[in-house]
């Protein structure tokens, strides 16, 4: 399945459908094939450590010969983000104002959206810098709404920065005319904005390249995950991010024992029909419900076998 072999794969979906297990299994399979692989969790409720039964945390940690993992810590990334902003404005802000600007930035650290901005910066950094060190990078993302927001940010931030650059350029032009010497003035703020615009543009180019990046959604054959997935795919399409593969997880055995499971299976058949009629443009990979939680590498190997069958 070529779609799952791209260098960058984002795994998304509703909470509880099996995103982390799917992302871990994809990573494990890639690493076993000899690809140097980085598995990254952007979900604040990390559970990669539980799946691999070892502590991972906010630093890249080796899982096996070819597999490393990272659980992004929003608090640490927010601190690093504010620190980076302070570095960026060093020499730009008047020395008499530095203390007040730093105080404002420290206050902003606790404001809504700060962790999102920090996570976004980390995501861009991984896509642009870590790609040099790994053959595959697989993202285990947070539940759907957060994922859509994160993936749409390169476009939204690109538009926002373009607006700031235009305003900054106009201000500089007015200032030059005021001085009437015709010489363009040096503007370090403009240069900082321009640099960030280039990074967003480079990351967006990679995200939109279907030969480099894949978007995979996981869902269960139930009504709410189907509806949420349909809505998510439509929203991502608006940003030209197209999901081509769906992992339909936790399929019951064909002939389950007992009246209760028999009725569940009847409902499941209806929902699988609904999935096949709704997602006609996506490749569907069916994965059975396992009798136990996936908590070790052998079980991941068993789980990943279904990607090959898909």
From TrEMBL:
A Pfam entry, by short name: ArsA_ATPase
MF (Gene Ontology): ATP binding; ATP hydrolysis activity
Stretches assigned to the ArsA/GET3 Anion-transporting ATPase-like domain: 7-306
InterPro entries xref list: ArsA/GET3_ATPase-like (IPR025723), ATPase_ArsA/GET3 (IPR016300), P-loop_NTPase (IPR027417)
Family annotation (NCBIfam families): GET3_arsA_TRC40 (TIGR00345)
Family membership: Belongs to the arsA ATPase family.
Protein's name according to its UniProt entry: Arsenic-transporting ATPase
């Amino acid at each position: 399945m070529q779609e799952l072999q791209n260098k960058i794969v984002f795994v998304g979906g509703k909470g509880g459908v099996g995103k982390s297990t799917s992302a871990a299994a994809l990573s494990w399979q890639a690493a076993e094939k000899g690809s140097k692989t980085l598995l990254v969790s952007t979900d604040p409720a990390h559970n990669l450590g539980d799946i691999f039964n070892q502590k991972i945390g906010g630093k890249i940690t080796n899982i096996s010969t070819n597999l490393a993992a990272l659980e992004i810590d929003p608090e640490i990334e927010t601190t690093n983000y504010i620190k980076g902003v302070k570095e960026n404005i060093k020499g730009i802000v008047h020395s008499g104002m530095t203390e007040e600007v730093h105080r404002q930035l420290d206050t902003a650290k606790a404001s809504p959206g700060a962790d999102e901005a920090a996570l976004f910066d980390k995501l861009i950094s991984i896509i642009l810098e870590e790609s040099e060190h790994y053959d595959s990078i697989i993202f285990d993302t947070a539940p759907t709404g957060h994922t859509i927001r994160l993936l749409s940010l390169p476009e939204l931030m690109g538009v926002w920065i373009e607006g700031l650059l235009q305003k900054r350029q106009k201000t500089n032009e007015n200032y030059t005319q005021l001085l009437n010497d015709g010489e363009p003035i040096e503007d370090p703020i403009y240069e900082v904005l321009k640099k960030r615009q280039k990074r967003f543009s480079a990351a967006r180019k990679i995200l939109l390249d279907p030969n480099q990046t894949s978007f995979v959604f996981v869902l269960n054959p139930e009504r709410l995950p189907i509806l949420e997935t349909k809505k998510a795919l439509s929203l991502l399409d608006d940003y030209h991010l197209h999901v081509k593969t769906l992992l339909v997880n936790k399929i019951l055995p064909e002939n389950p024992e007992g009246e209760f499971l028999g009725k569940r299976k009847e409902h499941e058949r209806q929902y699988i029909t609904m999935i096949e009629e709704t997602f006609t443009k996506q490749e569907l990979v069916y994965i059975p419900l396992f009798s136990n939680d996936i908590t070790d590498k052998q079980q991941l190997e068993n789980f990943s076998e279904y990607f090959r069958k898909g």
